[in-house]
Specification:
This protein is an alpha/beta fold. The chain is elongated.
Length: about 850
C-alpha cells in the first residue's frame, strides 16, 4: 500500500515537471516570436529610409544652393527669389536632419553647427535684395568653408544606417534560430504529450472498463445481498438503496429515494436521537454510528411495525459532500430465537429448582413415616412371633432398610448439587480409614467378603478436608466393591504424595484406592458407571440391587473436593477405583481429656445488640448469649436497631432479616450509611433460612457473618469469635465472607433434642417448659393466621417467623415445613404452599406429646 502511494506521488511530480517545462518553452517561444515580429516591423517601416534620404539630400540641396548663389554672385542671374527659395529648401533639410539627430543618440554630428550658421543669415534672406546682395560674399564664403559638412553627414548617415541594418539582421537571425530551437523543444514536448496522453487514454479506458465491471459486480452484489444497503447524506436523506432495502422495509424504491431516514425508517423513540447525531456530525465532523462497529437499533417498516436491526455504517467523504453507507440486517428471528432460548433456560432452571424442591420435600416427607414403620417393625420383634411371622418381619425390615437407602441416595445427590462449598476440618486419615473399614465389616461379612486396609502411606498428621464428603466417598466405593465381589477380597489403600504448589495451594495429594476381586467391568461400560441410575447388573434377577446412584454421588463429592476419580477394570479380573484429592496439612493439638470444652469458656465478653421481631427468639438468644458471658441489648425491629446503634457502641449486632416496617437489610444499610459509632461494627445475619442469592444480598448490604436458625451455641460462639472483638480492638471487617451454619444438620425427627438440650442448659428445665408452653400457644395462633392468609407474600412472612421461632425452640419438623413453605411461596407455587399449610396443624399437634416425652425421659441432666 505504501509503495503504491509512493509510486503515484512520483508520477505526479514527473507530470508536474513536464507540464512546467512545456509552459516555459511556450512562454519563451512566444517571447521570441513577439521580438521577431517587432524587429520585422521596425525593418519594414520607412523611418530609417527617411533619415538616410534626409541626410543624403543635404549635399544635393547644398550644391543647388551654392550653384544658385554663384550665379547671383557672379551676375549671371539677378533672381534673388530663386536664391531665397534654395536657401529655404536647404535650411529645411538641415533643420529636419537636426531634428532626427536630436532624437537619435547614435546619429552623425555637425548638423547642429550647420543649422546655427544658417540661422545667422536668416535676417539677410528675409530682408531686402540690397541686404541680401551685401551678405552674398559672407554667405558664399561661410558656405564654402562648411562644404565638407553635408558630405560628411551623408557618408556618416549611410554608414550608420548600414551598421544598424546589419545589427538588426543579426538580432533577427538569432531570434529566428532560437525560436527554431524552442519550437523543436515544444514539438518534443507536444509529441511527448501526445504519447503520454495516448497512454493515459489507454489506461483510462482500461480503468473505465474495470470501473464499469466493478460497478456491475458491486451492483449485482448489492442487488443480491440479503441485508438492506442505504446510501444516506449528512442530512439523513436517502440517496440510493439496493433491492433488499425495499424488501426489508416494505417501501418502494421511489418512495425511499430522497426521503428522510429518521422520519420514515427509525422508531419514533429514536428519531430525535438520530437527528441529533446528524446535526452533531455536520457541526463537529464526529460520527456517532458510522465506523463504530455493529450496533442494534429499532426501525420501522412500511406498515409501521417496529423491528430490531443490526446497523454497520461507514463514512464516505468526497469533496463538499459526506455520505453514509449503512448495512441494515433484520434480526427479528434471531431475537425471537434468543428469547425462546432464554425462556427455555428459565423453564429448565425452574424445572430443576422444582425437581430439587420436590426431591427434598418428598424425601423428607417419606423418611418420617418410614422411620415410624421401621420403628414399629422393630417393636414387633418381641420374640413372641412364630417362624413365619419372623420371616415376614425380617422381609419387611429389609425392604424398609432398602427403601431408606434409596431415599438417602437421592438426598445425597441433591445435597451434593446444591451445597455451595465444603466445610474444612482437621481430619486424621489413619483413624478415619480404620473407622470406615470397621463400619463396613458387617456388610462384608454378610457377603463373605474379606476386607483389607493398607495404611502404609499414612501417618499421624492431620489434614484439612470435608470429613462428611470423604466418608461418603469411601463408604460408597467400599459398598459398591463388596456388592460386586461376593466371596472375594476388597482392599482400601491410602497414602500421601507430596506436590510442588504455589503459596496457599494444597501441598499434598491424598491417594485412595479401592480394589476388589469381583466380576469386573467391560471397557465399553467404564464411562457409564458414574452416570445416575446406571446399574450394570441389569438382569431380571438383580443380584446386587441398588438405585445406581452410588458412583454418581462419589463423583459429585470428589468434584466438590476438587479431586479426580478414575476406574481400571477388566471382566473377570476385578476393579480398581483411584481417587486423588488435594489436601492442606494442619497441626492439631489433642488434649488429654477428650471431653469437648464449651466454646463460651474461651469467649471474650462482648457487648452485643440482638434484633428480632419474635419475642421467643429474642429471649432465647439473649439467654444463650448471657450464658456465654456476653452483655445483650434487645431491639424489637429494624427501626429500634438503627436508633440503638446511634446511642451506644456495640461489639457486634445480631440482625434478623424479615421484620415489619424496616427489615434487617434496610437497617444494616442505614447503620452503615449513618456515619455513627457503629458504622463499622460487625453485623451478623441471624435468619431461619437463606438461599445463596439471599446470602449474597446480605453481604452486599454490609453484613459480615451469617448464622442459620436454629442457632447452636457452639456455632454462634465460633461466628462471634471470628467477627467480633471488644470495642477497643475492633477494626473494619469489610470484604469478609458470609459464613453459613453449614455444619448444622437438618433433623428428620419431630424435635431437635440437641437444641432443646442447649435451651435447658441455659434456662433450666422449668423455664424451658414455660417457654415451650408459650411457644405452642403462639405457634397455634400463627398457623391459624397462615390458614387465613390469601396472599403468598403474607404467607411467606408468617412462615418465616414461625420457622425461626420453631427452630429456636427445637420444633424441627414444624420448622422444616415452614422453610419448605417459604420455598413454595418464593416459587409462586400456590397449590404446594396450601398443601404445606394443611400439614402444619398435624405437625403442631405432634409437638406437645413429643415435648412431654422429652421432658420426661431426656433432660435428666438439666433438673
Amino acid at each position: 500500500m505504501q509503495q503504491s502511494f509512493d509510486h503515484a506521488m512520483k508520477n505526479t511530480w514527473i507530470y508536474r515537471g513536464w507540464l512546467l517545462c512545456l509552459v516555459l518553452a511556450l512562454a519563451i517561444g512566444g517571447f521570441l516570436a513577439f521580438s521577431i515580429w517587432s524587429k520585422l516591423d521596425e525593418i519594414e517601416t520607412a523611418r530609417q529610409d527617411q533619415r538616410g534620404w534626409a541626410y543624403s539630400q543635404l549635399e544635393v540641396e547644398y550644391l543647388k544652393l551654392m550653384s544658385e548663389l554663384h550665379r547671383v554672385e557672379f551676375g549671371e542671374s539677378a533672381d534673388y527669389a530663386a536664391l531665397r527659395a534654395r536657401f529655404d529648401v536647404f535650411y529645411s533639410r538641415v533643420k529636419l536632419a537636426n531634428t532626427m539627430h536630436l532624437n537619435a543618440a547614435d546619429d552623425v554630428n555637425g548638423v547642429s553647427e550647420l543649422l546655427t550658421t544658417l540661422d545667422r543669415f536668416i535676417p539677410a534672406i528675409d530682408g531686402s535684395d540690397a541686404e541680401l546682395r551685401n551678405a552674398l560674399g559672407d554667405l558664399s564664403e561661410t558656405l564654402h568653408d562648411m562644404s565638407n559638412v553635408p558630405r560628411e553627414v551623408a557618408i556618416a548617415s549611410i554608414k550608420i544606417h548600414a551598421e544598424r541594418s546589419e545589427a538588426q539582421r543579426e538580432q533577427v537571425s538569432f531570434y529566428i534560430k532560437t525560436l527554431i530551437y524552442v519550437l523543436g523543444l515544444v514539438a518534443f514536448f507536444l509529441i511527448s504529450a501526445i504519447y503520454v496522453l495516448s497512454q493515459r487514454s489507454k489506461s483510462l479506458r482500461i480503468a473505465t472498463q474495470k470501473a464499469t465491471e466493478n460497478e456491475a459486480r458491486l451492483e449485482t452484489m448489492l442487488r443480491s445481498a440479503i441485508d438492506a444497503v442505504l446510501l444516506v447524506d449528512d442530512h439523513g436523506r436517502v440517496v440510493d438503496l439496493n433491492g433488499s432495502a425495499e424488501t426489508v422495509f416494505g417501501i418502494p424504491r421511489q418512495s425511499l429515494l430522497g426521503a428522510s431516514l429518521p422520519d420514515i425508517l427509525v422508531s419514533h423513540r429514536l428519531r430525535e436521537q438520530f437527528r441529533f447525531y446528524l446535526k452533531n456530525f455536520r457541526e463537529t465532523g464526529v460520527t456517532s454510528i458510522a465506523d463504530k462497529g455493529v450496533l442494534e437499533y429499532e426501525m420501522v417498516d412500511g406498515t409501521g411495525r417496529e423491528f430490531p436491526v443490526e446497523i454497520a455504517a461507514s463514512l464516505v467523504q468526497g469533496g463538499d459532500r459526506n455520505l453514509f453507507v449503512a448495512y441494515i440486517r433484520d434480526i427479528t428471528e434471531r431475537k425471537e430465537r434468543e428469547a425462546e432460548i432464554l425462556q427455555m433456560r428459565d423453564e429448565a432452571l425452574s424445572a430443576y429448582r422444582e425437581k430439587s424442591r420436590f426431591f427434598a420435600m418428598m424425601s423428607h416427607e417419606m423418611r418420617t413415616p418410614l422411620n415410624g414403620i421401621i420403628a414399629a417393625l422393630e417393636l414387633l420383634d418381641s420374640g413372641d412371633l412364630n417362624a413365619d411371622q419372623q420371616k415376614y418381619l425380617k422381609a419387611a425390615m429389609a425392604s424398609g432398610d432398602i427403601l431408606m437407602g434409596h431415599i438417602n441416595d437421592v438426598l445425597a445427590i441433591e445435597k451434593a448439587e446444591t451445597e455451595e462449598g465444603i466445610t474444612l476440618e482437621p481430619v486424621d486419615l489413619a483413624a478415619m480409614t480404620a473407622t470406615m473399614i470397621g463400619a463396613m465389616q458387617p456388610f462384608a461379612d454378610s457377603a463373605n467378603v474379606h476386607l483389607h486396609l493398607d495404611q502404609s502411606g499414612l501417618d499421624d498428621r492431620s489434614v484439612l478436608t470435608d470429613p462428611r464428603a470423604l466418608q461418603q466417598i469411601m463408604a460408597n466405593l467400599l459398598s459398591n466393591a463388596i456388592k460386586f465381589s461376593p466371596g472375594g477380597d476388597v482392599t482400601l489403600s491410602a497414602h500421601y504424595e507430596k506436590v510442588d504448589a504455589a503459596a496457599n495451594e494444597p501441598d499434598m495429594q491424598l491417594i485412595l484406592e479401592v480394589s476388589d476381586t469381583g466380576t469386573g467391568i467391560a471397557k465399553d461400560d467404564i464411562n457409564r458407571i458414574f452416570e445416575d441410575f446406571v446399574s450394570l447388573d441389569s438382569r431380571y434377577e438383580r443380584r446386587t440391587g441398588g438405585t445406581g446412584l452410588g458412583l454418581g454421588i462419589v463423583k459429585r463429592q470428589v468434584k466438590r473436593l476438587h479431586g479426580d476419580i478414575t476406574c481400571e477394570s477388566e471382566l473377570g479380573q476385578g476393579t480398581v477405583f483411584h481417587v486423588s484429592l488435594p489436601m492442606h496439612q494442619t497441626k492439631t493439638d489433642y488434649a488429654d481429656d477428650f471431653t469437648p470444652q464449651p466454646a463460651e469458656m474461651h469467649q471474650v465478653p462482648l457487648h452485643l445488640l440482638v434484633v428480632d421481631d419474635n419475642v421467643l427468639n429474642r429471649d432465647l438468644l439473649k439467654a444463650m448469649l448471657e450464658k456465654m458471658g456476653h452483655s445483650v441489648v434487645i431491639g424489637q425491629n429494624g427501626q429500634e436497631a438503627v436508633a440503638l446503634s446511634e446511642e451506644e457502641a456495640f461489639d457486634a449486632i445480631l440482625m434478623d432479616i424479615s421484620m415489619p416496617s424496616i427489615n434487617g437489610i434496610q437497617a444494616t444499610r442505614m447503620i452503615r450509611a449513618s456515619g455513627g459509632i457503629n458504622r463499622q461494627t460487625p453485623i451478623i445475619a441471624a435468619t431461619a433460612h437463606a438461599m445463596p442469592a439471599e446470602r449474597a444480598e446480605f453481604k452486599a448490604a454490609g453484613m459480615e457473618g451469617f448464622v442459620e436458625k436454629p442457632i447452636r451455641r457452639a456455632i454462634l460462639s465460633d461466628v462471634l469469635a471470628q467477627y467480633a472483638t471488644p470495642r477497643q480492638d475492633i477494626s473494619s471487617s469489610e470484604g469478609a465472607e458470609l459464613q453459613s451454619n453449614d455444619t448444622a444438620s437438618e433433623s428428620d425427627a419431630i424435635l431437635d433434642t440437641d437444641q432443646i438440650g442447649e435451651i435447658c442448659d441455659i434456662l433450666g428445665l422449668e423455664k424451658t417448659r414455660e417457654r415451650v408452653e408459650k411457644f405452642l400457644v403462639q405457634a397455634s395462633e400463627q398457623i391459624d393466621d397462615m390458614a387465613k392468609a390469601e396472599d403468598l407474600a403474607d404467607l411467606r412472612a408468617l412462615a418465616h417467623a414461625l420457622a425461626g421461632s420453631s427452630g429456636m425452640i427445637g420444633a424441627a419438623k414444624l420448622s422444616r415445613l415452614c422453610r419448605n413453605l417459604q420455598i413454595a411461596c418464593d416459587a409462586l407455587d400456590d397449590e404446594g404452599a396450601r398443601h404445606l399449610v394443611d400439614a402444619l396443624p398435624d405437625a403442631h399437634a405432634e409437638l406437645a406429646p413429643a415435648f412431654d416425652d422429652f421432658f420426661r425421659t431426656g433432660p435428666s441432666n438439666y433438673t
